[in-house]
Design goal:
The protein is an alpha+beta fold. The protein has helices at 17-34, 59-66, 69-79; strands spanning 3-10, 38-45, 50-56, 88-94.
């Protein structure tokens, strides 16, 4: 069974990490409930950055999420004020 992971790494100041975490918490339930192929979403708060790791049933589902209204108009819009640099976005497909 194939599976895909979407990793989004963001540079966020220490002072803004709680705000970024709140955005993650706000959008996790609708992500899991409405995004086709979504399996999980996890937040990694590290000293050097913030990562959100999403799992999907396929690479196509991960790519579709990046073009979705939930991601582009909601999540990105709310996170943008806290980003110190453009986020790094990677998709990994595994067997």
């Amino acid at each position: 069974m194939k599976q895909a992971f979407l990793e989004i790494t963001m540079k966020v100041s220490g002072a803004d990490r709680p705000k970024a975490g709140a955005i993650y918490a706000k959008y996790k339930p609708p992500f899991l409930a409405t995004v086709p192929g979504a399996k999980s979403k996890d937040l990694l708060l590290r000293e050097e950055d913030v990562q959100v790791l999403h799992s999907f049933d396929s690479q196509a589902s991960a790519e579709s999420y990046l073009e979705s209204e939930l991601f582009a108009k909601d999540v990105v819009r709310e996170l943008t004020p806290y980003l110190m640099a453009p986020p790094e976005i990677r998709i990994y497909e595994c067997q």
